[in-house]
Amino acid sequence: MIEKITSHDSTLHVVCQHQDEKNERTDIVDENEYLQVSLLNLSSGRTFDPHIHIKKKLEDHTQTTQEVWIVISGSVRVDYFDTNGSFIDSRIIHKGDISITLRGGHSYTVLEDNTLVYECKTGPYYGLEKDKVFI
Question: Largest CB tally within 10 Å, which of 10, 48, 74, 85?
Fold first, then answer.
């Protein structure tokens, strides 16, 4: 299940709960976002030809950090905030679930010991003082 959390006609956050996917590829975020996230359902023997991505100048898409959390084990409560810092909603994400922040704010509370999460963000990282404004 893919759920988009929106405000002012803009997607701020996306939550994708683990499910059995029938399609080979399901795009989770819109193609115009800087961070591209898709769910791939691949069969044994499927190959991808060796390739290198072409360097390109990305326009205004890199003005903010977009972030993904993928739960490997355990569970996390994610609180979602609007771009102005106001609270929107919370979700609990479990093993196999993913939380994507494209815009707005978020906070995480780990609910179980030994919770494992992959965190992916756009970069580069210039240090805390140039990366975050706390709500």
Answer: 74
33: which 2 tokens?
A: 């976002």
Q: Is 4 helix (H, G, I), strand (E, B) or coil?
A: strand
**CA separation for the pair 46, 118 (Å, rounded):** 24
Please report whether residue 134 resides in a domain: no
- Asked if residue 89 is part of any domain, the answer here is yes
Q: Which two tokens stand for residue 107?
A: 């906070």
> Omega of the bond prior to 50 within 30 degrees of 0, cis?
no
Cα–Cα distance measured from residue 57 to residue 59, given in angstroms and rounded to the nearest whole number: 6
Confidence bin at 40 (pLDDT 50/70/90): confident
Total number of residues shown for the chain: 135
Domain assignment present for residue 47? The answer is no
Domain that holds residue 17: 2-41+64-122
**Mean confidence (pLDDT) of the chain:** 88
In a domain, 132, yes or no: no
